[in-house]
Automatic annotation (TrEMBL):
Residues 12-482 form the Aldehyde dehydrogenase domain. Its EC number is 1.1.1.257. GO terms for molecular function: 4-(hydroxymethyl)benzenesulfonate dehydrogenase activity; oxidoreductase activity, acting on the aldehyde or oxo group of donors, NAD or NADP as acceptor. InterPro entries: Ald_DH/histidinol_DH, Ald_DH_C, Ald_DH_CS_CYS, Ald_DH_CS_GLU, Ald_DH_N, Aldehyde_DH_dom, OHmuconic_semiald_DH. Transmembrane segments: none annotated. It comes from Ottowia testudinis. Keywords: NAD, Oxidoreductase. This is 4-(hydroxymethyl)benzenesulfonate dehydrogenase. It holds the Pfam family Aldedh. Involved in the toluene-4-sulfonate degradation pathway. Does not discriminate between the sulfonate and the carboxyl substituents and can also be involved in the p-toluenecarboxylate degradation pathway. It comes from the Bacteria. The active site is at E254. It catalyses: 4-(hydroxymethyl)benzenesulfonate + NAD(+) = 4-formylbenzenesulfonate + NADH + H(+). Belongs to the aldehyde dehydrogenase family.
Length: 486
């Protein structure tokens, strides 16, 4: 049986207490391996190693030397592309086409983009005259924050983890990563890669486990952690922010969403249908930026619903490596139950089920997998649970609208504010709306199109802070001011 060990101070470490938990493949619910749960002693050891590394070889490297190591990491991830691919697919069940085009390449790119950015980073300086007639020059220096706790979700495990580890290391910090209990594999594999490229011991550490009363809580409450970066549910973000209050540690929070797509009658219809299909169903709807509310201008409402239904019905579920598989399972039995409970709720609240609404028929070998059908509803009021709450499954509700102000008010009424996409040929209207929608990310005639130099993050209850390009350095460094009198 495969075992996933903690990675502490450059070594793979078993659970001292002997506690392990099962890592399961959501395709058929088979056990992939046993994960060694980190208790307080392992978390203490990981944080101590990360703290010591700040004062060791790592702390003495120049930016250029650090960047060489990060570039080597990206190369090594690409060299071991297949190992990462197999590991990510086994943990998540996502289709090969998706993992090979998105998860693993972005996992490597997340190191490169930040080395490119940090090498050309400057800080501000000001010169002034002092009251006694002398001069003074003040300038900023960016210094690493120290030990960063990186708490990750399961939906894009390597991609979202390296999105934080990349800039944290580029800035000279050290990290202790707590991957999701559902997806321990690629974070563990990255430990091997760290050793291969000669990363100093203690710079990258991994502790496995759960949230409360486990590795997540032990790490986020640890007094020697200097900053916490988290991606996950808003409820967990609240708990982490409370933990960070003790010791006044900064947080960067990338949280949940209930993202809208707004489709105007003058849109390029095929672009809108194809892109909304991806935004609703890609990764079985488990993308934080995914669309769960679609608003369509009334003249094309029926035609759009019919077209999205036709697309949803081509989303063939199946094994990740089958060429005709278009959708994988959701991550776990627990999440399958949650998504299906919303499918029941939609029916109870009087939705018209346009397509889906349950579990697809699967061959015997996959019957125990965590499958759910791509699902579309219409006919619900804006107050319905499936229109207001994040489901994180392959589903959406479609409503008609008549006016720009009306749809703007509906989109903004939600407590989340992560992403919106707008489909229209009227570029004036698109820009006017983009400036009024209360989100961190707004796409026009596109979705999930990313330039990694741009700010990424959510408004309202979707998060605090922006990461990406130079914006990541706001969180991963402390800006110190130096004033020289001369
Ligand atoms: P989650 O909040 O359940 O878990 C995320 C991580 O937090 C896991 O590693 C978990 O073990 C840990 N954790 C849980 N409780 C904790 C605690 N009290 N203290 C410390 N750690 C704790 O999220 P999930 O189910 O893994 O991921 C899905 C959620 O993530 C969705 O809400 C989705 O919208 C969100 N998400 C947001 C973004 C974004 O960029 N905004 C990206 C991806 C996912």
């Amino acid at each position: 049986m495969k075992e996933f060990l903690n990675f502490i101070n450059g070594e793979f470490v078993k659970s001292a207490s002997g506690k392990t938990f099962e890592d399961r493949n959501p395709v058929d619910h088979s056990v992939i391996g046993l994960v060694h749960e980190a208790g307080k002693p392992e978390v203490d050891a990981a944080v101590a190693a990360a703290k010591a590394a700040l004062k060791g070889d790592w702390g003495r490297l120049s930016v250029v030397e650090r960047c060489k190591l990060l570039d080597a990491l990206a190369l090594e991830i690409n060299r071991r592309f297949d190992d990462f691919l197999q590991a990510e697919i086994a943990d998540t069940g996502k289709p090969h086409a998706l993992a090979s085009h998105v998860d693993i390449p972005r996992g490597a790119a997340n190191f490169q983009v930040f080395t490119d950015t940090i090498k050309s980073m400057s800080t501000e300086s000001f010169q002034m005259r002092t009251p006694d007639g002398k001069n003074a020059l003040s300038y900023g220096v960016r210094v690493p924050r120290g030990v960063i706790a990186v708490i990750c979700p399961w939906n894009l495990p390597l991609l979202l983890m390296t999105w934080k580890v990349g800039p944290a290391l580029a800035c000279g910090n050290t990290v202790v990563v707590k991957p999701s209990e559902e997806t321990p594999a690629t974070a563990t594999l990255l430990g091997e890669v760290m050793n291969t490229v000669g990363m100093p011991k203690g710079v990258y550490n991994v502790v496995h486990g759960f949230g409360p009363n486990s590795a997540g809580e032990f790490l986020t409450t640890h007094p020697d952690v200097n900053g916490i970066t988290f991606t996950g549910e808003t409820r967990t973000g609240t708990a982490i922010m409370k933990a960070a209050a003790d010791g006044i540690r900064p947080v960067s929070l990338e949280l949940g969403g209930k993202n809208a797509a707004i489709v105007f009658a003058d849109c390029d219809f095929q672009v809108a249908v194809d892109t909304v299909t991806r935004s609703c169903f890609e990764n079985a709807g488990q993308v934080c930026l995914g669309t769960e509310r679609v608003y369509v201008e009334r003249p094309i409402f029926d035609k759009f619903v019919a077209a999205l239904k036709a697309k949803a019905e081509t989303m063939k579920p199946g094994l990740p490596f089958d060429k005709d598989t278009k959708i994988g399972p959701v991550i776990s039995k627990e999440h399958q139950e949650k998504v299906l409970s919303y499918y029941d709720k939609a029916r109870e609240e009087g939705a018209t089920v346009v397509t889906g609404g349950g579990v697809p028929a699967m061959p015997d070998a996959l019957k125990d997998g965590c499958w759910v059908q791509p699902t579309i509803w219409t006919g619900l009021p804006e107050t319905a649970a499936v229109v207001t709450e994040e489901i994180f499954g392959p589903c959406c509700h479609i409503s008609p609208f008549d006016a720009e102000d009306e749809v703007l008010a509906k989109v903004n009424a939600n407590r989340y504010g992560l992403a919106t996409s707008i489909y229209t040929q009227d570029i004036g209207r698109a820009n006017r709306m983009a400036q009024q929608i209360e989100v961190g990310l707004c796409w026009i005639n596109s979705w999930f199109l990313r330039d990694l130099r741009t700010p990424f993050g959510g408004s309202k209850q979707s998060g605090i802070g922006r990461e990406g390009g130079v914006h990541s350095f706001e969180f991963y460094t402390e800006l110190r001011n130096v004033m020289v009198k001369f």
